[in-house]
Amino acid sequence: MLLESNLGDTAVSVHRHAALRWASAAAVAAAVLVPIAADAAELLVFERRGCVWCRRFEAEIAPVYDKTDEGRQAPLRRIDLDADGTPADVALAAPVYFTPTFVLVDAGREVGRLTGYMSDEAFWGLLGGITARLAPATSALAPERQDGT
Length: 149
Fold this sequence. Notes:
Layout: H1 9-33, E1 42-47, H2 52-60, H3 62-65, H4 69-73, E2 76-80, E3 101-106, E4 109-115, H5 120-131
Parallel strand pairs: 1-2
Antiparallel strand pairs: 1-3, 3-4
């Protein structure tokens, strides 16, 4: 909002100062509040409406996933395959056709995937195999070397 025009250059200066303060505050808020998904590991869950196995995953795994080491290491990111398609910020090794498909990504690149869901035992076992591929700096679950490092 511009102050009265009879104030001349002072009004323009006040307006610019307020705009700069607002822009600075918005930039700081964006940097703090917007997660940078491409820099962190995450487990993409490709789902679609009417998928029975997606609902089974939702009932058996989703309620506890974020409380596990795997969940803290690679939080879930849900993607509706029909509505959202493939996210632009992720480089997949191959297209996703079936649901559910779980794709582990690190720094925006696919590390591994699980196609389908059979049971909680199968899911945790297979997920453990692909999370072990994460770099040690990213992975809280990376295997410890024999020399203790």
